[in-house]
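Colleagues,

For the teaching module next term, I've prepared a clean inverse folding example: a structure given as tokens, and then the sequence designed for it. I'd like students to try predicting residues themselves before seeing the answer, so please don't circulate the second half yet.
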């Protein structure tokens, strides 16, 4: 019997080799890939997210857990592709034009992947037109924008306007150190998340 709790525990500890070994063993034993994903990897990442929110974990622990998650996902990938398991949703994510900060954005991306979402990472310094292009090319349910500078925050409004003008129906979430719920309301974003774990909660609400 595959031990989902052991997979989750190893992931929480950021023990990549054990995660890979246990996931491989589960697959060799004929476990269901979706069950391993949800009850092992995603369950572990949910704990990491909660601890991060409660300041029990810091950025390095989250990055190490996310690395273990990615390694486990690589083992699962062929079986997931075969079984046609659908992601929880598709998210186009990027740091807006003029802004080069990507540590927080990457953390959000990793946590979203940990939450079962497919993430299309547009990168940093991304102009509005590129976000529009990516939304048109992919059937994304969520557009997630990050900004760390007060000077680049207004770009978020520019992107949201461009997306509306292009007639694309997508839920928008924004975040980053200077961003607030008031600012999200002001520029017409559908939601604001203060940290990476809250971004996953919000994304789940948005696709529910
Ligand atoms: Co910059 N920088 N920086 N910087 N930098 C800040 C942001 C600053 C607050 C430092 C300061 O002065 N105290 C300040 C901004 C001031 C302001 O606008 N109010 C600043 C400045 C001024 C600058 C430059 C202009 C400096 C200069 O050149 N004169 C310049 C700008 C370059 C540019 O972007 N065009 C610059 C450059 C840089 C580096 C390149 C050196 C480097 C970035 C490296 C990189 O990202 N690869 C850098 C860094 C590292 C920082 C600080 C020190 C750390 C940022 C960080 O990574 N934090 C930062 C000061 C600080 O915040 N203490 C600072 C860790 C990260 C995990 O947190 O990104 O906040 P954070 O992400 C969090 C949440 O905000 C949230 O979740 C994350 C995790 O919980 N979140 C989201 C983020 N995006 C989200 C999206 C969501 C939801 C949640 O939904 C979509």
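(Answer key — instructors only)
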């Amino acid at each position: 019997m595959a031990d989902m709790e052991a997979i989750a525990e190893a992931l929480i500890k950021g023990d990549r080799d054990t995660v890979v070994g246990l996931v491989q063993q589960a697959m060799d034993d004929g476990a269901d890939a979706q069950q391993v994903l949800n009850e092992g990897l995603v369950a572990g990442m949910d704990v990491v997210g909660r601890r991060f929110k409660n300041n029990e974990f810091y950025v390095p622990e989250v990055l190490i857990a996310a690395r273990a998650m990615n390694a486990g996902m690589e083992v699962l990938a062929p079986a997931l592709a075969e079984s046609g398991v659908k992601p929880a949703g598709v998210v186009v994510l990027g740091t807006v034009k003029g802004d080069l900060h990507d540590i927080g954005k990457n953390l959000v991306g990793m946590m979203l992947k940990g939450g079962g979402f497919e993430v299309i990472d547009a990168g940093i310094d991304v102009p509005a037109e590129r976000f529009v292009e990516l939304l048109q090319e992919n059937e994304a349910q969520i557009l997630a924008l990050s900004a760390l500078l007060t000077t680049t925050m207004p770009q978020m409004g520019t992107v949201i306007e461009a997306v509306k003008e292009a007639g694309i129906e997508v839920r928008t979430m924004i975040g980053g150190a200077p961003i607030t719920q008031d600012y999200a309301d002001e520029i017409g974003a559908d939601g604001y998340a203060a940290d990476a774990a809250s971004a996953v909660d919000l994304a789940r609400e948005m696709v529910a």
